[in-house]
Write a structure and sequence with these properties.
Elements: H1 2-22, H2 50-62
């Protein structure tokens, strides 16, 4: 009877451990945990070349506000 009681104590701990480690996804590692208002903490943006800039200006010119 003692062994059966032990199983009832171990399974909830095992399930809790699985749930907690399931939240540790690879893509969430290394992200910023602190928040500083008004400060961008992400990576740097890629440079915009002349062709892309001209295309963006054309798109903006075609928008009607």
């Amino acid at each position: 009877m003692g062994a059966g009681l032990n199983k009832h104590r171990v399974w909830p701990i095992v399930m809790l451990a699985l749930l907690l480690t399931g939240g540790c996804r690879e893509e969430e590692q290394g992200r910023a945990l602190g928040f500083e208002p008004g400060v961008y903490q992400g990576g740097s943006m890629p440079e915009i070349d002349g062709d892309m800039r001209a295309g963006l200006r054309e798109r903006v010119a075609n928008q009607d506000f």
